[in-house]
Amino acid sequence: MQKNSYFLNIYLAKFWETLGNFFQNFWIVLYEWFGSDDYSTVVWGSFLITTLLYWIAGFCYTVVDLTGKPAFILKYKIQDTSSYPVSFRQVLRVVIHVLINQVVVSIPFYVFCYQLMAWRGFDSGSTLPTLQRTLLELVFCILMEEIGFYYSHRFLHHPLLYKHIHKRHHEWTSPIAITAIYAHPIEHIFSNLLPPFLGPFLLGSHVVTYWLWFSIALLSTLNAHSGFHFPLFPSPEAHDFHHLKFNQNYGVLGILDQLHGTNSLFLQSKKYQRHIFSLSLVPLKVLYPDKSKKL
pTM score, two decimals? Predict the structure, then answer.
């Protein structure tokens, strides 16, 4: 037994070492591809990675949104009130607006981020941070995003700002994935871009940690707007409820919503019972049916 445990530990150590060497070598190649220049790496690297990731993942969702196929996926759809599939005209409008945000708004923001990061000091060295450090920094980034997004998002719901800025995002009461950054440019800066930047900036994180965190945040918000609750995926129920009721669930994690009591209606809803990480292939609407709709 001890012998097997010894060989398992050796195998795991070799596996992590090999994996670490792979990412280390890949980072060096990537850094050299950007001319070993911090400005190009931060600005253009961030733009390329986030834009490509958004549209690769978004394309997969959008194919289903436009066609309603493959049909077996539709059983995981949580939005009962939306007309589906969506029209090409609706999708095209979103695509154009999102591209404007990504090019006209995001690129200047990345330039601004670089200036702040250079002033704060950040790690762009050839040696990647350890896995343990990266995980700890990601936890901090998640908490900072929760604070930044909750308060900026709730502030945009003020009557004086809502109709001029945030209303555009809420045109979709049953959103689709790529509406994640379908927003007014001011909202895109202060709610979509700034909150994820807070954590890496405060920590002076390595550029790769910055990219990794932005990628996680991007995939999370695409999923939160998708209208699908797939097995093994984070639950989109809370943010979908926000689009339905407007004055509930302003945050990402739900911590500040619980603290401020801005999730009271959500906690009483059937959607809250379905707001779990599903390990079952059976749709949660089947496991937790809304009996009131059958009456």
Answer: 0.90
Distance in angstroms (rounded) separating the CA atoms of residues 264 and 251? 13
Taking every pair of Cα atoms in the chain, the longest distance, rounded to a whole number of angstroms, is 69
- Per-10-residue mean pLDDT, the chain, length 295: 58 63 80 88 94 96 92 87 82 96 97 94 84 92 96 94 94 92 96 96 93 94 94 93 92 95 93 90 85 55
Token readout for 263 is: 């999730």
What b-and-e string marks burial along 63-85, b requiring 16 or more CB atoms within 10 Å of the CB?
ebbbeeeeeeeeebbbbeebebb
The answer to whether 222 and 207 have CB atoms below 8 angstroms apart is no
Classify residue 7 as left (phi > 0), alpha (psi -120 to 50) or beta: alpha
Question: Three-state SS string across the chain, please?
Answer: CHHHHHHHHHHHHHHHHHHHHHHHHHHHHHHHHCCCCHHHHHHHHHHHHHHHHHHHHHHHHHHHHHHCCCHHHHHHECCCCCCCCCCHHHHHHHHHHHHHHHHHHHHHHHHHHHHHHHHHCCECCCCCCCHHHHHHHHHHHHHHHHHHHHHHHHHHCCHHHHCCCHHHHHHCCCCCHHHHHCCCHHHHHHHHHHHHHHHHHHHCCEHHHHHHHHHHHHHHHHHHHHCECCCCCCCCHHHHHHHHHCCCCCCCCCHHHHHHCCCHHHHCCHHHHCCCCCCCCCCHHHHCCCHHHHC
Of the candidates 204, 211, 203, the residue with the CA atom closest to the CA atom of residue 31? 211
Give the C-alpha separation, 249 to 253, whole Å. 9
The span from the CA of 188 to the CA of 196, in Å, is 12
